[in-house]
Amino acid sequence: MTEKNTVLIVGNGGREHALGWSFAQDPRIAKIWFAPGNAGTAQVGQNLPLAATDEEGIARWAVREKPGLVVVGPEAPLCAGLADRLRSLGLRVFGPGKDGARLEGSKSFCKELLVSQKIPTARAGSFRSVDEAVRFSESLTCPQVVKADGLAAGKGVVIAGSHAEAATAIRQMMAEKAFGEAGSTVLIEEFLDGEELSVHAVTDGKNLVILPGAQDHKRVGEGDTGPNTGGMGAYAPAPKGTPELLQRVTEKILVPTLQGLRDRGIDYRGVLYAGLMLTKDGPKVLEYNCRFGDPETQVLLPLIETPLWDLLGAAADGNLSGLSVKIRSGAAMTVVLAAPGYPAQPILGQSIQSGPDLPDSRLFHAGTKAGSRGVEVAGGRVLAATGWGKDLKSARDRAYGLVAQVSFDGMQFRRDIGYRALGTQS
Ligand code: AMP
Ligand code: GLY
């Protein structure tokens, strides 16, 4: 152990608690900090009073403390250039620079790269004028999809069932600025039908390590009903992500994406997270994210046997080729426990009761904080009850076993996580 085996994790969600927990399993790790973290991360490391988007504060702190590795969790600081800033100060950083993060931060940049690399994706047009967008929309059949170009916290996508609905969405995004500047450019694209799959790859800009396919549950209600959320639960490996499919995704999607980034002079070190639609014509890219998914991370990390210090460190160093990465057999599932009123208007401040730790499971914190009455609800997605085991069914039993030990006023969660793979729970 050297004093350089220290890690700063930027962010405060379930993803960051899971990252911290995974680092903490490694006896070589001397210290973990979080900027800013939550009540759960405070149990595995030290929370710093620095917001994830406080670039100045994080840079000043990092120059002083010189962490051995920085992992940037969320998209906003990556899109704002935090990784570039910290690299310019000589730090080892896992996460793409501002140029690479455009893959998530600008849907039109992403689409342009996909099309130029002949990567399967929905046919789309990108527009800066309402009239042109409406004209293109009318040339496509319905349903069709209207997307704000920039970051809109997962809310900037409208599946329009009619041309009138599409026109309304276009006007709301472009003229009424429902998502601010994120909607000054819109994409209109054809609707893709199928099942969704999240495929994460860790990359050093040249080599890729593909992780098991995961399935998220984006809608708030059981049976995929109600409004979209950040994600209400996930499991991995998803049976749809067969070795053959992942091989095809690597060859036809991930490798050409990395090549497209390199052709544009972008040295991308971090996670390439492809949101795929498995259509009858094969997998197509719905979107790219430039970071680990939340809650996908909570189910991927228990499956990765290789220490994160080695995996993410090698990617940060541009040196993944020598690393052989071990993935455990078995499966993991996470169930998000959300605040009442989430996603529209979450009610916060309730105190949280939880039980003792159970084997092969972990209660990852997301929107929590230490308050005067113990741990309190401090965000829409509050906790991610995660279990793992030899198969998906035992992972589900453990995840829901943990859920049964937690309560807070108005707690809501889905009882059907994993239903596509397992059927609904009786
Ligand atoms: P995105 O942020 O682009 O991934 O979109 C958010 C969600 O909208 C996706 O996870 C899909 O459920 C849905 N979506 C996006 N694009 C399409 C599309 N072209 N066809 C069908 N559904 C889509
Ligand atoms: N789970 C979806 C996301 O992280 O974007």
- Note the gap between the termini: 49 Å
Provide the gyration radius in Å.
Answer: 21 Å
Taken from the alpha-carbon principal axes, the silhouette is globular
Indicate the structural class.
Answer: alpha+beta
Largest sheet: 5 strands, parallel
- What number is the mean pLDDT? 94
- Tell me roughly what share of residues is in helical segments: 25-40%
Q: What proportion strand?
A: 25-35%
**Low-confidence parts:** none
Oligomer: single chain
The set of bound ligands, ions and cofactors reads: adenosine monophosphate, glycine
Count of helical regions: 13
Characterization of this structure:
- It is a single chain.
- By secondary structure, this protein is of the alpha+beta class.
- Helices cover 30% and strands 26% of the residues.
- The protein has helices at 14-24, 55-65, 75-80, 82-88, 98-105, 107-116, 130-139, 163-174, 243-263, 296-300, 308-316, 392-403, 419-422, and strands at residues 6-11, 31-36, 46-47, 69-72, 93-94, 124-127, 144-148, 157-160, 186-190, 195-203, 208-210, 215-216, 219-221, 225-228, 233-236, 270-279, 282-289, 331-338, 361-365, 368-371, 374-377, 381-389.
- Strands 3-2-1-4-5 form a 5-stranded parallel beta sheet, sandwiched between helices. Strands 12-15-18-22-19 form a 5-stranded antiparallel beta sheet.
- A hairpin with a 3-residue loop joins β13 and β14 (225-228).
- α5 (98-105) packs across α6 (107-116) and α7 (130-139) packs antiparallel against α8 (163-174).
- The longest helix is centred in the middle third of the chain and has 21 residues, at 243-263.
- It is globular and about 60 Å long.
- The model has no long low-confidence stretch (mean pLDDT 94).
- It binds adenosine monophosphate and glycine.
